[in-house]
Write a structure and sequence with these properties.
single chain; alpha/beta; 2 domains; six-stranded mixed β-sheet; three-stranded mixed β-sheet; globular
Length: 265
């Protein structure tokens, strides 16, 4: 089933980190809408192309002009099932916009998947969305991640990591990988869609991250199969109810204990 994904972007966003997920997720059948504060659908933003060319930091060159297809001012956040935050230089100023931070908090508070690439983590840290999470980002963002209460994970530039409903990756090089942020976000969306309804037993499906590693997670059969076949690095923690059951076994669940479900591949 097609889902609606919002991408918040701005001038000098990293070209690949916006365009590749924008096109790939649409190719998977999803609807992707890109919005920029202060701009309307049909207007354009400028992108930048970053590369590693032997200097002590990345180089920057002009990218494409990208045409937006949504009005930021009139976004109806309840319509969207997931959020994409590309990096580049745009997050430097987007994180100063309180409406942008409010949008991010909507996805966090309503337990919807979020993917942030490279400097996209700067928006997450400003929105207090990384506390207690394992987060990858461009290495220059590591101090911000730690100061915001996250645990920075150093990965190859082609890597990505999933923690709960949060997918993060360090650079545009990750966008083409089979275990990169795009398939990870798509799989989280699929699992959210296929998650069983929460059972009504008292104490069941109430998330308690403090119990991770003691009782283990009880996972839906779809999640267990995905983890066992290597399709998805199942979560170390999760924010909301129906996917998890930490107290009383539900129907159609399996218990996995004594394992770490985060993959850095």
């Amino acid at each position: 089933m097609s889902k609606h994904i919002l991408s918040i972007c701005g001038d000098y966003v990293e070209d690949y980190e916006l365009m590749v997920p924008f096109q790939a997720l649409q190719a998977m059948g999803h609807s992707v809408e890109a919005a920029c504060p202060g701009k309307h659908a049909g207007e354009q933003i400028r992108t930048a192309i970053h590369d590693f060319e032997g200097a002590q930091t990345y180089s920057e060159k002009p990218g494409h002009n990208f045409t937006l297809n949504a009005d930021f001012a009139t976004l109806e956040l309840d319509r969207y099932d997931a959020l994409l935050l590309p990096g580049g230089r745009a997050p430097e100023y987007l994180r100063l916009n309180l409406q942008v931070l409010s949008c991010v908090r909507h996805f966090v508070d309503n337990h919807k998947p979020i993917a942030a690439i490279c400097h996209g983590a700067q928006i997450l840290t400003a929105a207090d969305a990384v506390r207690g999470k394992q987060v990858s980002a461009y290495p220059a963002c590591a101090p911000e991640v730690r100061q915001a209460g996250g645990s920075y994970v150093e990965l190859p530039m082609t890597g990505a990591i999933t923690d709960g409903l949060l997918v993060t990756a360090p650079a545009w090089l990750s966008t083409s990988g089979p275990a990169g942020p795009i398939p990870r976000l798509a799989e989280l969306i699929r699992l959210q869609q296929n998650s069983p309804a929460p059972c009504r037993r008292r104490g069941c499906c109430q998330p308690d991250p403090a119990k991770v590693g003691r009782k283990g997670w009880r996972l839906s059969s779809n999640q267990l199969q995905a983890w066992a076949t290597g399709i998805l690095p199942i979560f170390t923690r999760h924010s909301a109810g129906p996917v998890l059951c930490t107290e009383v076994p539900c129907e159609s669940t399996a218990t996995v204990t004594g394992m770490s479900f985060t993959s850095n591949s």
